[in-house]
Amino acid sequence: MNNTSCQQISFNFPGRFLPPVYILVFIIGLVANGWGLKSLLQNWKKLGNVNIFVLNLGLADILYLLTLPFLMVYYFMGSKWIFGDAFCKITRFCFNMNLYGSIGFLTCISVYRYLGIVHPMRVMGRITVTHSVGISVMVWLLVSVQSLPDMFFSKTFRNKPGKCYDTTSKLYVEDYLKYSLGWTLTGFCIPFLITLGCYGHVIVFLCRTKTSDELLKQRCLKLLCIWILLFSVCYAPHHLFKNLNLWSRVLSKNNFCSEWFNGVYIAHQISRGLVCLNSALNPLVYLSGNEDVPAQRGRRLQPACRIFSCLSPCNFGCLPVAQTADEVEPELKC
Fold first, then answer.
1. Which of 39-53, 54-68, 138-152, 158-172 has the lowest mean pLDDT?
2. What is the DSSP letter of 230?
C-alpha cells in the first residue's frame, strides 16, 4: 500500500490529550511526593535502609515533574518549542531518568523485600545503608548510560521548526528503533522479570508458610498490587506502543503504510500520558513502605510481633543499620 492511500494520522491529538494529563500529574505528583518525602525524612531514624531506594524514587519523580510546565507550554502553543534544542533534549533526558530510574528502584525494593521474607536470617545485619547507597548510585549510573545516547539523536526537524520530539526526527528513525528495542530489553524487560520472580516467590512462600501475621501478608499483597498497577498501566503500554509507532514511521518512510498506523500513533500518545502517571502513583510506595506504623501497631498488640516483623519482608531494614546479629540478640530473645 502506498502513501497516497494512507489514513490521515491525527497529529493534533497530543495537543488535546497530553496537557490536561500533565497538569493533573504535576499537581498530584508534587503534593504526593512532597508529602511522602517529608514523612520519610521525619521518620528516617525509625525506618530501614530499604527507604534509601524509596527516597531516590521520590527524587526521580521530582526531577521529571519540574519539566512538565515546559511541556505544557509546548502543547498549549500548538506544539511549538520555544526553549531551544538543548533544553528539549534535557527535558526528554529527565523523562527517561525518571522512567528507568523508577523501574530500577522498584526492582531494588522488590529484591530487598524478597530477601527479607524468604532469606531473613541470611541477610540480617549484612545489608547496611552503605550497601543501599552504593546500589542507588549504580542504578543512577546505569540509567544515565542507557539514556545518554538519546541525547545524540536529533529532537528537531528542519522542515518542522519548533518541534520537540520525544524520540527523534524522521531522518534517524531507523537507528532510533534499534536503540529503543535494546533499551526496552535492558531497561524494562529484564527488571520486569526480576521483579516478577521476586514477588511471585514471595507470594508462594507466604502461602506455604504457616504464619499468623496477617498484617505482613496484607502489606506484601498491597505492594504486589501497586507493582502490577505501575507495570501494567504505566510501563508496559509505553514500551509496546513506542516501538510499534517507531516501526510504523520506518515503514512510512519507506513508502509503506497501513490503516493501523493512526491507531498505533494515538495509542502511543495515550501511553505517553499513562507513563507519566507513575510520578503520581509512586508515592503509594511511601504508604506501603512505611515500616514505623505497623511496627507501633505490632508493639501494642503483642511483643512477639516485633521479633517476626524484624525478620519479615515488608519490615525489612527495620534493624538499625549499625547493628549486627549479635547486637540484636538480646532483643530477639525477649
1. 39-53
2. I
Domain count, the chain: 1
- 223 lies in a domain? yes
Cα gap 72→28, rounded to integer Å: 15
CATH number for the domain that contains residue 87:
1.20.1070.10
What's the pTM? 0.82
* Number of Cβ within a 10 Å radius of residue 281: 19
In a 13 Å sphere around the CA of 275, the CA atoms on its Cβ side amount to 25
Q: Which residue, among 31, 18, 29, has the nearest Cα to 60 in the 3D structure?
A: 29
Helices (H), 66-152: 68-76, 85-118, 120-123, 129-147
Q: Which residues pair with 160 in a beta bridge?
A: 157
Q: What are the E-state strand segments in the chain?
A: none
Please measure the distance between the N-terminal and C-terminal CA atoms of the chain and give it in whole angstroms. Answer: 76
| Residue 160 DSSP symbol | B
Given a contact cutoff of 8 angstroms between Cβ atoms, the answer to whether 170 and 253 are in contact is yes
- Asked if residue 326 is part of any domain, the answer here is no
Domain containing 22: what range? 11-151+159-320
DSSP letter, residue 303: T
Residue 309: inside a domain, yes or no? Answer: yes
Question: Which residue in 106, 317, 320, 312 sits closest to 219, CA to CA?
Answer: 312
pLDDT digits (tens, 9 = 90+) for 213-266: 677 777 777 778 888 888 999 999 999 999 999 999 999 988 888 888 999 999
pLDDT tens for residues 39-66?
777 777 665 678 889 889 999 999 999 9
